[in-house]
Amino acid sequence: MSRVTHSCTPFDGQKPGTSGLRKKTRVFMQAHYLECFVQSIFNAIGGAKGKTFVIGGDGRYFNAEAIQTILRMAAANGAHRAIVGQNGLLSTPAASNLIRQRETDGGLILSASHNPGGIDEDFGLKFNTANGGPAPEKVTAAMYEETKRISEYHTLDAQDIDLGSIGETRLGEMTVEIVDPVEDYTALMKTLFDFDAIRAHIAGGFSLKFDAMHAVTGPYAKAILEGALGAPAGTVLNGEPKVDFGKGHPDPNPIWAKPLVDMVMAEDGPDFAAASDGDGDRNMILGKRCYVTPSDSLAVLAANAHLAPGYDTGLAGVARSMPTSQAADRVAEKLGIECFETPTGWKFFGNLLDAGRATLCGEESAGTGSDHVREKDGLWAVLLWLNILAERKASVGEILLHHWQTYGRNYYSRHDYEAVDSDTANALMADLEARLGELPGTEVHGLTVTKADQFAYHDPVDGSVSKNQGIRIFFEGGSRAVLRLSGTGTEGATLRVYLERYMPAEGALTIETQTALREVAAAVAELSALTARTGRETPDVMT
Ligand code: VG1
Ligand code: CO
User: Fold this and answer.
1) Which of 64, 293, 368, 410 is 20 to 30 A from residue 53's alpha carbon, by CA?
2) Residue burial 269-280, b: 16+ Cβ < 10 Å; e: rest
3) Which residue in the list 40, 113, 295, 413 is annotated as catalytic?
4) Which-ligand-closest: CA of 22?
């Protein structure tokens, strides 16, 4: 087994986005492409020599092949040990947990998350640091610099190893440890939640469904929901991970998980339903005849987390991404705890969690998590909801209504315009940005602009500044619109328009969401000349 050094030339565009490097699978499969990026990661972190890494992915097409390549390269770069999920599978939160529990030097997570999988779909790779969280901007920037000057990479001239058998093998000088991907994660969940109370609630007739969307959470959900919590077999739907996710988008929202939504809207539907995404870090929460927006979910969880054993001493603080609705802010205010507003992407929560300033974090894109790992965590959110439901013995709908009656309601929706021509999208954003100064005072569709800016984040822990994180337009009365371009797409640009309107507790709390947001949507469309520029009358996806 000899070490081989290949020379290579840099590839354009190996710049990590919101969550690692995401490209079409065929792009990743080009000769030397993956290798150049992996070597750049090792170079950017001061080499792999003597280090231990966790390696695993969401099981999509090319997952297993890419892991073999990474293992050979890690060995050739002098790594000491690789901890790999059996068959190459690890949900993103489970990988984060392993990185932390085993006190490793970080991990390589293979996923394009909610994007579809397959040879003509998407693939992705990201590096998480020793705290278990996605590499912060200064590290991803260093990786990108390496990708621009890379001239060689190291690998081993060796056969593939068997990823299916649990236990240890050697690859050159490196130990490869294949682990059960579910075991440690399940143990962690048991320390946070009252499994007995949830089990009793389910045994008492509380019914639930979980849609794993043919992605990585299937084995986790079966072990935890059907195994440890005693939910009947068949509770987990689409529970076998597939390389193409059954040809769907493994994105837990009312569009891509429509069958589940239809189920809870039916007369004989379950009391609770949930879904997770490709790599298991997102969640969608549903109750009988009710969809909980991720922003509301964060707020409800913040208000009720003390009911679960892992959080019974209260929360240090709450953090949300900037486009996420301000519902959680109201809870934080009432609890008298800090509330942070960060740019989109979980990497910005890491410092706050490490410093003990935030306990719960959330994003409007179906991401919720806590300081138990350094990633958002789909099943964790499901279990916290279940724990709260078991304690409060109320329905999801009742809890939500009670929440709005206490704090008021932040009507909220995200409108996505997908595969927009990149130049068009960039010009729309640039022109709007240039006009931000003149917007205050403007009246549009009955709304008056009070403030407009380009969001910049000043990290309170390390003092770093992240600029250009999205355009915010505030209106009189507490409504708000945010515009930003996606950093996870692989085709053209995706323009995300986030809409929010606040209704006080004594106001109308049950208006249909899109109806409640009609004026804000019309106002932002007019201010950005959205239809004229993009030719789009309606969004492709509304969540
Ligand atoms: C999207 C979401 C963002 C999330 C990111 C990764 O990013 O908006 O909130 O953190 O996906 O989630 P963007 O740049 O496309 O808006 V996942 O589940 O893909 O790791
Ligand atoms: Co994900």
Assistant:
1) 368
2) bbbbbbbbbbbb
3) 113
4) 1
Say yes or no: 393 and 457 in one domain: no
pLDDT of residue 1: 74
- The residue whose CA has the least distance to atom 4 of ligand 1 is 345
Q: Give the total number of structural domains in the chain.
A: 3
Q: Count CB atoms within 10 A of the CB of residue 430.
A: 10
Among residues 356, 379, 407, the one where a domain terminates is 407
Pocket of ligand 1 (CB under 6 A): 18-19, 113-114, 277, 281-282, 321, 344-346, 363, 365, 367, 486-488, 496
What is the per-residue pLDDT for 492? 87
**Cβ atoms 324, 340 nearer than 8 A:** no
Residue with the smallest CA separation from ligand 1 atom 6 is: 19
Tokens of 426: 């960039």
pLDDT at 510: 94
Record the pTM. Answer: 0.94
pLDDT at 356: 97
The tokens for 445 are 């569709």
The answer on 220 and 168 residing in a single domain is no
Segment-wise mean pLDDT, segments of 10 residues, the chain, 543 residues: 93 93 97 98 98 98 98 98 97 98 98 96 97 94 97 96 97 97 96 98 97 97 98 97 94 92 94 97 96 97 98 97 98 97 95 97 97 98 98 97 97 95 95 95 95 96 94 95 90 94 95 96 94 92 90
Cα of 452 vs centre of ligand 1, distance in Å, is 24
The reply to whether 319 and 425 lie within a common domain is no
Kind and range of the H or E run holding 220 = helix 217-221
Q: Is 113 a residue of the active site?
A: yes
Tokens in use for 169? Answer: 């093998």
